[in-house]
From TrEMBL:
<comment type="similarity">
    <text>Belongs to the ketopantoate reductase family.</text>
</comment>
<dbReference type="Pfam" id="PF08546">
    <property type="entry name" value="ApbA_C"/>
</dbReference>
<comment type="pathway">
    <text>Cofactor biosynthesis; (R)-pantothenate biosynthesis; (R)-pantoate from 3-methyl-2-oxobutanoate: step 2/2.</text>
</comment>
<dbReference type="GO" id="GO:0005737">
    <property type="term" value="C:cytoplasm"/>
</dbReference>
<keyword id="KW-0566">Pantothenate biosynthesis</keyword>
<dbReference type="InterPro" id="IPR008927">
    <property type="entry name" value="6-PGluconate_DH-like_C_sf"/>
</dbReference>
<feature type="domain" description="Ketopantoate reductase N-terminal">
    <location>
        <begin position="3"/>
        <end position="151"/>
    </location>
</feature>
<dbReference type="Pfam" id="PF02558">
    <property type="entry name" value="ApbA"/>
</dbReference>
<dbReference type="GO" id="GO:0008677">
    <property type="term" value="F:2-dehydropantoate 2-reductase activity"/>
</dbReference>
<keyword id="KW-0560">Oxidoreductase</keyword>
<dbReference type="GO" id="GO:0015940">
    <property type="term" value="P:pantothenate biosynthetic process"/>
</dbReference>
<keyword id="KW-0521">NADP</keyword>
<feature type="domain" description="Ketopantoate reductase C-terminal">
    <location>
        <begin position="185"/>
        <end position="308"/>
    </location>
</feature>
<dbReference type="InterPro" id="IPR013328">
    <property type="entry name" value="6PGD_dom2"/>
</dbReference>
<dbReference type="InterPro" id="IPR013752">
    <property type="entry name" value="KPA_reductase"/>
</dbReference>
<comment type="function">
    <text>Catalyzes the NADPH-dependent reduction of ketopantoate into pantoic acid.</text>
</comment>
<dbReference type="InterPro" id="IPR013332">
    <property type="entry name" value="KPR_N"/>
</dbReference>
Length: 315
């Protein structure tokens, strides 16, 4: 199996690195700055599951790209358009794209451009970040990927003739020690993550504290529950087949995670990096307006984070 990673950051560097470490043929498509870092230092991963350093196969030119079975797409949402030329080249030669971005709208963007036979649904649970030197730091035991074919893709869905590639990918993740689930309803899984993450990241970024601090304070805890309900209503009106007790499940999960856990959005805010608020909280506000669902919690949080959206250095 040949894998190309676009976005060799905290997520792509971690999962791509684990696959490469397990002997899978992995190529990282990188831009100039990341190329320099990775060539000079190697891909250094500091992880709760064990540290490792690799000198991965790096490519900076479209003409040097290998033919890929799977593209692991792990750029930030605001960088998605910049990845189109490389995706065009890889999909044009038959690759399937597994996006690991947070949010839900990128799936429409990708399927409109490449169709459902070339785009999988996917989501990941991991707490990882890049140091100033470009090393990946993975801080909690979670390293889970859920993926599957999208509605409309009969080739790779259960019973489809192309299903074998997805099973091969699941096998590759298992070899790499990564927890992976081949989902039969990936949109439901993606929306469950979106309900959880968009609320969790909104509250941790706006309070500027990990979840423990949020839950200790009754007012903030109630706001978090309100956020979960707002985004859950959107999902229901959109007809996503979520479990009936989703709000309780999400709140339970939030109460059970480590009190020190925070979101990538909060970490990005602290580092002065651009924020994915348009893809997360802004998307909730926009969908709410379109569907006539009030999202007062998200409206306020989106506005309060907006001055920081472009980060200190811009995008
Ligand atoms: N970090 C986490 O804990 C989690 C993150 N996620 C989601 O995963 C996605 C990725 O996040 P994360 O890994 O944290 O982000 P990072 O910023 O750590 O990594 C993104 C990488 O993408 C690279 N990149 C951007 N555009 C391109 C391009 N056109 N071609 C090649 N490389 C490109 C950037 O490199 P450069 O700009 O230097 O070229 C950077 O190295 C986000 O949607 C995030 O919400 C999901 C779960 C957990
Ligand atoms: C839910 C969580 C914290 C872990 O995957 C995440 O996705 C993020 O911080 O972006």
């Amino acid at each position: 199996m040949n894998v190309v990673v676009i976005g060799a950051g905290a997520v792509g560097g971690y999962f791509g690195g684990r696959l490469a470490q397990a002997g899978i043929d992995v190529t990282f498509y990188v831009r100039a700055r990341r190329f320099k870092q990775l060539r000079e230092r190697g891909l250094q991963v500091h992880s709760t599951h064990g540290d490792f350093t690799l000198h991965p196969h790096l490519v900076t030119e479209l003409s040097d790209l290998p033919k890929a079975d799977i593209v692991l797409l792990a750029v930030k949402g605001y960088h998605l358009p910049s990845a189109f030329p490389v995706l065009d080249a890889l999909v044009g030669r038959g690759a399937m794209v597994l996006p690991l971005l947070n949010g839900v709208h990128h799936i429409d963007t990708l399927t409109e451009r490449y169709g459902t036979t070339h785009v999988l649904g996917g989501t990941c649970y991991i707490e990882s970040t890049l140091t100033a030197e470009g090393d990946v730091v993975h801080t909690s035991p979670m390293h889970d990927i859920v993926f599957g074919s999208l509605p409309g893709d009969s080739l790779h869905s259960s019973g489809g003739t192309g299903r074998a590639v997805l099973e091969q990918l699941q096998h590759a993740f298992a070899e790499a020690g990564v927890n992976s689930t081949l989902s039969e309803d990936i949109l439901v899984d993606m929306w469950q993550k979106y309900v959880f993450l968009t609320s969790f990241s909104a509250i941790t970024a706006s309070v500027r504290a990990p979840i423990g601090k949020v839950l200790q304070d009754e007012v903030t805890r109630n706001l978090l529950i309100q956020l979960v309900k707002e985004v859950e209503s959107i999902a229901r009106v959109r007809g996503i087949g979520l479990p009936n007790d989703l709000v309780n499940q999400v709140v339970q999960r939030l109460c059970n995670v480590s009190p020190s856990m925070t979101s990538s959005l909060h970490r990005d805010l602290e580092k002065g990096m651009p924020l994915e608020i348009n893809e997360l909280q802004g998307a909730a506000v926009q969908m709410g307006r379109q569907l006539g669902i009030a999202t007062p919690g998200f409206e306020v949080i989106y506005a309060l984070l907006h001055p920081y959206a472009a980060g200190q250095g811009g995008r």
